[in-house]
Write a structure and sequence with these properties.
Layout lengths: L3 E6 L2 E9 L5 E3 L4 H5 L19 E4 L4 E4 L2 E2 H7 L2 H10 L5 H13 L6 H7 L7 H15 L10 H27 L12 H10 L10 H14 L6 H10 L5 H13 L6 H14 L4 H9 L20 H17 L4 H15 L1 H5 L6 H11 L7 H22 L26
Antiparallel strand pairs: 1-2, 2-3, 4-5, 5-6
Helix pairs in contact: 2-9, 3-18, 4-7, 6-7, 6-11, 7-8, 7-18, 8-9, 9-14, 9-17, 9-18, 10-11, 10-18, 11-18, 12-15, 12-17, 14-17
Bound molecules: acetyl coenzyme *A.
Acetyl coenzyme *A binds next to helix 17.
Length: 428
């Protein structure tokens, strides 16, 4: 028999269905509560609200578990590739050999962007943050592919939009970086795989013989896998929310890029490095910075610490911490901020403030250190996150459309003025 929950208020009792997922997570379905009782639920920041049923990613914050389509993040990070994981997230199963080849080839065919995109890029000053440029270039695809404005098109047409999104993302990202330098852009070299192609567009001088470094490409590939999806986080919820109005895939993802930009979400990886650099510059007094983070009158927070869902450890942080050690050793990089990061983590994890609040390093705490070792400039860190998160945004947008989800439209509790008469300007 299916479970129900009972809610009693003002002498009346309402019976609410309980929905249980495949991993036995349960949710009280309040979809009809307002019709029955006139009540809505109030949950600012959606801290305890399930916005959808999803078959893409499973996350257990108490036990530090993350799985894409049932496969553990640890196994995928070790054995898979980013493109394979993208296929898995978007289409639900690991691809066979031929399917993977076709998917890769399709992506390669679409890496070039319309030359007029360069005119849009030229409109940005070199002071433009690459995340803003990326979101704009991504959204501009609605102009180059107007058929994408109809999200109810045939699935082959949706497939092409998905492929174009994956194919052009590294091109937009590298071009957004070139814009900050005021340098000419590089075109995609389709003889290279995804990460090497991106690195060449980022760093090669025009007409230069560029030799991709396999250590760098494989480290980058792993980082992208770790960021590929994370269920209903701020940017993904944004993609689903915007897409629920039947907005196009490009505009929905562009909104997700903007949501990711903020320092409490994807922007944290940039903030972590700036924080670690400040600590080094300040003489490396870690206790002082821990005290600042704990002081309620000081707005400073330990960036890269804490997570809305993980309250034990972030499994991605564990993988990244090890990867940071490996990559720095392989590249022969000695970075003083890695020592500061390690000390900071050690001290914070023994401090009652962080223990009581279950604050642990999140994915962003060590990712910036790897990006730095790979030569990626700090203002591009959040862009790297966006490249990684793209398959997740696509998968979630596609799932939302296929499930024919209704438009997202939360309720509110009004706390403003009661009705009052207009006061003419002369009497104010
Ligand atoms: N440093 C110091 N104190 C912190 C930190 C931190 N990084 N994070 C949370 N706290 C404290 C809060 O002050 C609060 O204390 P209180 O109970 O005494 O008031 C308590 O811990 C709970 O914090 P909330 O902000 O309510 O937790 P929430 O779930 O809303 O926020 C968040 C989670 C935004 C990630 C937060 O921990 C934070 O700001 N971290 C730093 C930014 C960061 O690293 N963001 C990346 C997140 S991962 C990602 O998006 C990929």
């Amino acid at each position: 028999m299916s479970k129900t929950a009972e809610l009693s208020i003002d002498g009346k009792t309402y019976s609410l269905p309980v929905f249980t997922g495949t991993e036995n997570e349960s949710a009280i379905d309040i979809g009809k509560l307002r019709d029955q009782s006139g009540l809505v639920t109030l949950d600012p920041g959606y801290k305890n609200t399930g916005a959808t049923k999803s078959a893409i990613t499973y996350l257990d914050g108490d036990n530090g578990i993350l799985r894409y389509r049932g496969y553990s993040i640890e196994e995928l990070a070790e054995k898979s590739t980013f493109i394979e994981v993208a296929y898995l997230l978007i289409f639900g199963e690991l691809p066979g050999k031929d399917q993977l080849q076709r998917f890769r080839d399709d992506i390669k065919i679409h890496t070039l962007v319309h030359e007029d995109v360069k005119k849009i890029l030229d409109g940005f000053p070199s002071t433009a943050h690459p995340m803003g440029v990326l979101a704009s270039l991504f959204c501009s695809q609605t102009a180059f592919y107007p058929e994408s404005l109809d999200p109810n098109r045939a699935s082959e047409s949706i497939y092409i939009s998905i492929i174009r999104s994956l194919a052009k993302m590294p091109t937009f990202a590298a071009w957004a970086y070139k814009n900050t330098l005021g340098h000419p852009v590089n075109y995609p070299d389709n003889s290279l795989e995804y990460c090497s192609r991106f690195m060449k567009m980022m760093f090669a001088l025009p007409a230069e013989q560029y030799q991709p470094d396999p250590v760098i490409s494989s480290a980058l590939d792993k980082l992208l896998i770790l960021h590929a999806d994370h269920e209903q986080n701020c940017s993904t919820s944004t993609v689903r929310m915007v897409g629920s109005s039947q907005s196009s895939i490009y505009s929905s993802i562009s909104a997700g890029i903007n949501a990711l930009w903020g320092p409490l979400h994807g922007g944290a990886n940039q903030e972590v490095i700036l924080m670690l650099e400040s600590i080094v510059k300040d003489g490396g007094n870690i206790d002082k910075w821990i005290a600042k983070a704990k002081d309620k009158n000081d707005p400073f927070r330990l960036m890269g610490f804490g997570h809305r869902v993980y309250k034990n450890f972030d499994p991605r942080a564990k993988i990244i911490k090890k990867a940071a050690d490996d990559v720095l050793a392989k590249l022969g990089v000695k970075d003083p901020i890695l020592d500061v990061a390690r000390n900071l983590e050690d001290i914070a994890l023994r401090d009652p403030y962080f223990i009581e609040r279950k604050l642990y390093p999140n994915v962003d705490f060590y990712s910036g250190i790897i990006y730095r070792a790979l030569g990626i400039p700090v203002e591009m860190f959040t862009v790297m996150f966006a490249i990684g998160r793209l398959p997740g945004w696509i998968a979630q947008w596609k799932e939302m459309r296929e499930n024919k989800e209704p438009i997202g439209r939360p309720r509110q509790i009004y706390t403003g003025q009661k009705e009052r008469a207009y006061i003419p300007i002369t009497k104010r």
